[in-house]
Amino acid sequence: MRLLIMGPPGAGKGTQAVLIKEEYQIPHISTGEMFREAIGNNTCLGIKAKDYIDKGELVPDDVTNELVKERLKHEDTKGGFLLDGYPRTLNQAFALDIILSEFGIFLDAVINVYVPSSIIIDRIVGRRVCPSCGAGYHIKTLKPKVSGICDACGHKLIQREDDTEEIVVNRLRVYEERTKPLLEFYNQKGLLINIDGNGDIIDIFKRIKHTLGGMNDNV
Ligand code: AMP
Asked: Could you tell me the distance, in angstroms and rounded to a whole number, from the CA of residue 77 to the centre of ligand 1?
């Protein structure tokens, strides 16, 4: 399956993406993760992206489109993929259409995880991640067994630098202005699936599976 997962920052896209990746055995391609990795490795891409990410702004479209195009050339995407955090602007959506048509493939569905904006800030500011294995936690709702330590690999948890309240407010503004219009774009193509992102992680995943159920015999 070739899927996109969308939603405002803090909607729980990343958490659901990990479950979808395992269930459907497709690579999870997160542009945010790719940028963070590039920043960690101090590559040219990382240096270009850092200033934008630190402010909660979007990395320019041309840089992001090229990154995704190169990633989609990898062999592991032949059986499908889940794009997370891309596209984020209409120009990126147009670019993705061109990339997919060049590769002779098309999207099966666009999953939009929605949550009321009132709970988003709490969700993001309390979020902690494991920089080693990528597992996600929350200081109130999804605590690790030992405070500050990853259950899965024992690494020390961190707060993403762009998960502070000030930057989150900007990320939400950017989402409303630049990314939300994409929902109508994909709705008109008949690809949009709206999923209520409130409640238990597994229940939300069941909603996604149920909706995708009719699309793939393996589901
Ligand atoms: P995320 O991990 O998806 O929340 O992304 C973290 C940050 O990476 C965003 O706030 C942007 O600065 C940058 N970023 C991720 N994906 C994109 C994209 N498709 N276009 C532009 N910037 C992006």
From this structure: 21
Between the CA of residue 54 and those of 12, 36, 164, 168, what are the distances in Å? 21, 11, 10, 11
Give me ligand 1 centre to Cα 217, in Å.
33
Q: Is the CB of 86 under 6 A from ligand 1?
A: yes
pLDDT exceeds cutoff 80 at 214? no
Strands 136-138 and 127-129: antiparallel
Terminal-residue alpha carbon distance, the chain: 10
Whichever domain contains 194, its CATH number is 3.40.50.300
Distance from chain centroid for Cα 177? 18
List the domain range (segments joined by +) for residue 88. 2-27+74-218
Tens digit of each residue's pLDDT (9 = 90 or more) over 50-73: 999 999 899 999 999 999 999 999
